[in-house]
Amino acid sequence: MYNPREINLSKDTTIEQAMEPDKIQIIVLDGSQGTAHVLEAPEHGKTIIQTAKGSFARVDHEIGFKIK
To answer: Model pTM?
Structure first.
């Protein structure tokens, strides 16, 4: 559900085309590897993007649940 997936960005791709209704998504652009990834953000929580040696390496989520 929150796993990043690689996407192909072409010159004709727009942000509007990439949006999915009722979802918050994060786009990671890795200039070192020349790749782009998209992942869904949790409804409540933090998303931490980690890099290693200048490249996108990992995504961590701190997910909370709202009571009441």
So the answer is: 0.75
